[in-house]
Amino acid sequence: MLRTALLAAMLLCVFCKDVAAETIGFATWYGNESGTRTTSGERFDERAATCALPTYRRGQPSRTVRVTVLSTGRSATCRVNDRGPAAWTGNIIDVSKGVAQQLGIVVAGRVKVRVE
To answer: Per CATH, the architecture of 20-115 is what?
Structure first.
């Protein structure tokens, strides 16, 4: 019984890895897709303060994260409403063009960030 409970707790931790308070990695931005549907079902608006995380699933409640560019200290808060980036990119988050403009990363395209 105890072994089963321990195994269940370990599996829960594996599937809830996005609960961590802080993650450091690379971010990119996406745009020019306005009007397409996001994983949440809403229409994508590149000017909105939204982002995509790989752990987001359809039907999850919205939550917000703070993204901080490590090299400049600039930060922005955005609402998670989509799934991405693809695992093969090595990025931990995709932000909308509106958030990228707030962070000053439109030209750079890919920067190291902290996500809280």
So the answer is: Beta Barrel (2.40)
First to last CA, the chain: 36
pLDDT tens-digit readout, 32-55: 777 889 999 999 999 999 999 998
The pLDDT tens digits of the residues spanning 98-112 come to 999 999 999 999 999
Domain ranges of the chain: 20-115
Q: Tell which residue, 70, 84, 82, has the closest CA to residue 24.
A: 70
Instruction: Report, in this order, helix, strand and coil percent for the chain, each rounded to 5.
Output: 25, 35, 40
CA distances from 64 to 1, 3, 10, 52, 83 (A): 37, 35, 26, 11, 14
